[in-house]
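Final report, Chapter 2: Outcomes

The project's central promise was a pipeline that accepts a single protein chain and returns its three-dimensional structure in a standardized token representation, suitable for archiving and comparison. That pipeline is now operational. To close this chapter, we reproduce one record exactly as it appears in the project archive, with the input sequence first and the structure output second.
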Amino acid sequence: MRPAHADGTVVNVSGNEAPTEVSLELLGVFELTCCGSRVPVSLGAQRLLAFLGLRPDGVHRGAAAEQLWPDYPCHRAAANLRSALCQGRRACGVTLIDCIGQRLRISPVVRVDLLRIRDSARQIVDILESPPASSETLIDEFSRELLPGWLDEWVHSDRERWDQMRLYALEGLAQRLLSAQQYLPALQAALAATAIDPIRETAHRIVIEIYLAEGNVASAVQCYQQYEAYLQRELRVTPSSQMTDLLQRLPCLQRDWHKLRRNAPAQAPVPAPDRLLGQANGPRARNTASTPSERHGQRRRNDQSLGW
């Protein structure tokens, strides 16, 4: 048996490295490659390799069978697992799945793209290093969806976790690139985040901040208006005060707000209470007659009501 390094390079017992590298790509279309060549794998083996690739610490056989084939009886799911395991263990002449008692795990020979990219995302979120020089590559990697088109329930939960991780990574990368005045890659990172989750406001705020830092006020205002219209159309809500504060000091918007206040309809007069209306119609009410004869008649009626 030949041990292997964690980077996927297989080593002979004598210590000489063999040129065998195995890569498992889960971001985008599923692909297993060995020595640079694509390896065809059955659908059952693909699902097992992907399931274990997302769980490098391993999983119990029973749990794997239950999650991979939830609609099958236990004995049938176990049979499917044995078949997939037989097909996937040595798909390219190298042991890809380690069996340790009742636990299964992906072999250290296999380099899983998601695990590598997820480590880069954590470093950005945790601010462990300065903005990377290869930001374009990172943006491209963070923009890739986990196993698109796969409808398995276990994929949904893993996909949601990956989406949240890459959103925070893209936003953190955009902020750090903005601080370094690298506006183009910062904008690309922020726009990639808005494409993943159009409703999320954080990335849209970063886009506006980038436009303002560049002096592109019109682009910033347009971005705000488009996002505001989108929220109104989809959720009937408005952007937060954190976003409106970014543009509140702009003269163009201040003029618009003053114009709205000037054009606001005047409030209707508040009707007087009945008690006041009664007083107005009483003996001491103001004389509202228009002609002398009418005013004289009104005075006579008032005097009669007082007993004069």
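Archive annotation: DSSP finds 13 helices and eight strands in the chain.
This record, like all others produced under the grant, will remain available to the consortium after the project formally closes.
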